Amino acid sequence: MLFDVNLVDREFYRSRLADFLPDRIVDVHAHVWRRPRVDRSAAAEARTVSWPARVARDGPIEELLETYRLLLPEKAVTPVVFSSPTADEDLDALNDYVSESAAHHTIPALVLAHPSWSGEELEQRVLFGGFLGAKVYLTYAPDYLPSDEIRIFDFLPPHQLRVLDRRGWIAMLHIPRPARLRDPVNLAQLLEIEQRFPNVGLVVAHVGRAYCPEDVGDAFERLSGARRMRFDISANTNEEVFRRLIGAVGPGRILFGSDLPITRMRMRRICEKGLYVNLVPRGLYGDVSGDPHMRELDRPEADRLTFFLYEQLDAFRRAAEGEGLTRADVARVFHETAAGMIERAGAGRAMRPAAPPVPPPGPSGPPPGEPGPADAPVSRRPPA
Ligand SMILES: [Zn+2]
After folding, report:
1. Residue 6: in which H helix or E strand, if any?
2. CA pair distance 198, 176, nearest whole angstrom
């Protein structure tokens, strides 16, 4: 089996999630890639976080589909897939793999876009690869910019937004900057995108990385004039943040995303003084002593930890119930809004559930946990 699903996990899913989740689900945020990740333990960079690389160094499509079968049994899940920046920076190879995987399994996909591409180049790559839009990453902002000073337009430039706008394509955006969602530069540029490029299917990933209530600030008041931008709930487990999101934008602009394979992690997240801390079983993710976002638990507490994805879904369930969402509202979040966005971006491109999947044809890539090359170059990784 790809990973263990134990009694604690099954009971958590059965008692809290199985009935809450609709039978059909669109996951708007899933990563697939084939290349080994850099072993981040070899490179302690103070300005970035290292824990995501410890969960999965390789993310083949077959493993993603198997993960849905294991974690969301009896649900028909359609992922929107895109790559994950790797150290070798070979964007073409990364995108080719996503394009081929998506075509083979008939699932929607986004191109990992570089800000140096002209608008025409982006357009050709999206069309040629059968993509529905772009996933952009601050990793590709110009090297001379310190991480904390990167702005959205440094890696999602207006000349590319013009193309995405004209085509009605999707832009999946992981926002930069240490202040996250409440950052005034982020908020100004998010509003500018909505005003100047209203036809872009803009998705603000991870609720703008607001993993603790302190990250929200007055963001939703400042964004109150916005009517279109959507927020995915991937890799976020904060009930209060979700409640404020639901209260501010309503269920029609919230999308389910998983951020798999990261959320395969066995983990519960807490906030302390406005900073998130992932509680994990001791030893499971290597030496995490240098990472302020990680803390280890011993047994028997550690034995009660379940998957990051389940904690995310359960936090959203509690928020949805607290805010009085109906089953129809929940269906919009988990399926309908995303299906409409995909339909529009693909102008009728066929979409069908990818799960339950067919068994993978054979071994694909190194098993999870196998170390990547320790001497590989380290690229700038977006802060989680
Ligand atoms: Zn992601």
Report:
1. none
2. 21
Strand 275-281 relative to strand 268-272, pairing: antiparallel
Integer Cα distance of 279 and 264 in angstroms: 14
Q: Distance (Å, rounded) from C-alpha 136 to C-alpha 83?
A: 10
Beta carbons of 29 and 234 less than 8 angstroms apart: yes
Cα(140) to centroid of ligand 1, in Å? 15
Q: How far apart are CA 267 and CA 279, in angstroms?
A: 5
**Nearest of 52, 327, 383 to residue 208 by alpha carbon:** 383
In one letter, which amino acid is 115? P
Cα 301 to ligand 1 centroid, rounded to whole Å? 28
Write down all domains in the chain, each with its CATH number in brackets. 22-264+308-345 (3.20.20.140), 266-306 (no CATH)
Structural tokens at position 263: 């959320």
Where does the pLDDT of residue 286 fall: very low under 50, low under 70, confident under 90, or very high at 90 and above? confident
Kindly give the distance from the C-alpha atom of residue 298 to the centroid of ligand 1, in angstroms, as a whole number: 29
Whole-prediction pTM: 0.88
Distance (Å) from CA 174 to ligand 1 centroid: 8
Contact 104, 32 (CB under 8 A): no
Give the model confidence (pLDDT) of 218-239 as tens digits. Answer: 999 999 999 999 999 999 999 9
